[in-house]
Amino acid sequence: MRFRLRYGVDMPTTGRRERKKAQTRRALSEAALRLFCEHGYDGVTVAQIADEADVSIATLFAHVPDGKEALIFDDGAERPVWLAAAVRDRPPGQSVLQSLRRCMAARGPFTNDLPPELRRKRDLIVSTPALREYSRKLWIAGEGTLAEAIATESGRAPSDMTVRALARYVLEIPGLAGTEPDPLAALNAVFDLLESGWPESPEEVTDRPG
Amino acid sequence: MRFRLRYGVDMPTTGRRERKKAQTRRALSEAALRLFCEHGYDGVTVAQIADEADVSIATLFAHVPDGKEALIFDDGAERPVWLAAAVRDRPPGQSVLQSLRRCMAARGPFTNDLPPELRRKRDLIVSTPALREYSRKLWIAGEGTLAEAIATESGRAPSDMTVRALARYVLEIPGLAGTEPDPLAALNAVFDLLESGWPESPEEVTDRPG
DNA sequence: TCTGAAACTGTAATCATTATAGATTCAGAT
DNA sequence: ATCTGAATCTATAATGATTACAGTTTCAGA
């Protein structure tokens, strides 16, 4: 029991094996982030990362089957869950799109309310094409999950193309608005478009509902 | 002059050098398509393709700097031009979105009005993740061009996030709707969404304008 | 005919990724 | 306390895409 705190506070609670595994995985992430920040993504080889984390290359790929880009993303599967949960647990009276807008605004590139370490990571991702791409891939991977939540909450079929399109378009927003000078304003503009549709003339724009 | 027809009908009209270059490029595309169709994308190496086209690997990459996926796309830069032109040259009274909807419906995965060779190519692309990805990349590369046309035609700034988002969302449609059982119906559903916005309840859907 | 650029070649790198086969370590059962 | 199988890790050697290089051939234009 006294070992628990040695390796981290919120491990899955099983044996030493799992702790060591997580330890290795974290060592890899941290080594990768450190080296990427110092020499740029393309200036670092997976061999160097493995060395820095003191594991073999084979071990590196065992921990990160998706390859080099995935090294600094430890949370791949979680993101779609946040959004789906935001839709399901939204307060009564709030529309599906409103809940998505708020949830998204609190994440990723849209807030500066982050510890400096995460901010450095975000900046690295935003400024590295390969990492931007991979980040998008992670978001899009949640399309099915999000579409299901949207369908349930709006009384449509999950295979309804409108549902799938909305899910996809929402998940594209980080990649689309994340590089703008004012990401939050950009995010709101895109959600306005999704809520109200494209007004043929700029004059027709109406105030944002809600 | 009598050599013109030997190598093709619509070469850029300069010397033999250009003709041979185009000839080589076409040999590569055709070899790649043939081998991909026969053994699957992952079942073919660039070395095999180079062999089949009777050029060295270095030459292959000189012709196709974007790599293996680009081999069967000889028209990368043209696609955004079609769409931008469709927006600019639309008949009076037709909305920007209407023109895009019609132009898109005539292309890529949305029509079967294609020669069998192109149909085989399209099926290969749709059924191969790496090629789908690359095709999307080509579409998205035209975002700036399309955004500019949309901005001009609708009296907005090209940097307006709404414009950029619309351009992006339109260009995502092939990848989004192209794999549906009825791609054309899917395309129309997505355009309806972009025109009218997301109706919180399915009941609110209005007839498609125009 | 001469000359420089363009296109091509073979060869050898670099790098990510996967396969293999053996060693070590741990969890759970005896 | 010991045994056993699975998980983890290792070194090593492929494979395959991509790039660098240095030299050759071929063409266009002076």
Automatic annotation (TrEMBL), chains A, B:
Q: Which residues bind DNA?
A: 45-64
List the molecular function annotations (GO) for this entry.
DNA-binding transcription factor activity; transcription cis-regulatory region binding
**Classification via Pfam families:** TetR_C_14, TetR_N
User: Coiled-coil regions in this chain?
Assistant: none
Gene source species: Streptosporangium carneum
Domain named HTH tetR-type is located at: 22-82
In Swiss-Prot or TrEMBL terms, this protein is called: TetR family transcriptional regulator
Sorted UniProt keywords: DNA-binding, Transcription, Transcription regulation
